[in-house]
Amino acid sequence: MNFYIVLFLFTFLGIETLAIKCWVCRSDSDPKCADPFDNSTVPITDCSHEPDLMHFPGVRPTMCRKIRQKVNGEWRYFRSCAYLGEPGIEGDERFCLMRTGTYNIFMEYCTCNSKDGCNTGANLSSMSFISLFLLISFIYYFVG
To answer: Among 12, 19, 47, 78, which one is most buried in terms of CB atoms within 10 A?
Structure first.
């Protein structure tokens, strides 16, 4: 009987979701956010703690993004958690989406979920709490 309890614990309480951690900064307010990136004073952010977006209800960040933007000859860098998109171009994170516009505007949009600075870590999901409830019910029913 104890074997089944241990098996149940390893099977269900081990359920985790991956929480991505990203650098969150802007070069217009922190020059260290620009390239070359100096993360010595920028704390890494757990994207699971980022707020929900009103215009995308229920969508959570699953990647990191870096936007490099040139407007009128001035480079700006934005690093943040990404709610939408795909890593890299066709899944290859070495490549970024590039766009040019009128009035001397250039933008490079990079997304990733597996590189340094795009760290993943374990974050307990709500499934763990459900599993705990099931475990207590299981023990009460079969053991108690």
So the answer is: 47
Q: CB under 8 Å to 135, separation ≥6 — which residues?
A: 5, 8, 9, 12, 13
pLDDT tens digits, one per residue of 45-82: 999 999 999 999 999 999 999 999 998 889 999 999 99
Distance separating alpha carbons of residues 117 and 24, to the nearest angstrom: 10
pLDDT greater than 70 at residue 119:
no
Burial state string for 80-118 with b = 16 or more CB within 10 A and e = fewer than 16 = bbbbeeebbeeeebeebeeeeeeeeeebebbbbbeeeeb
How far is residue 132's CA from residue 141's CA, in Å, rounded to a whole number?
Answer: 14
Question: Whose CA is closest to 64, among 89, 83, 51, 48?
Answer: 83
pLDDT at 118: 61
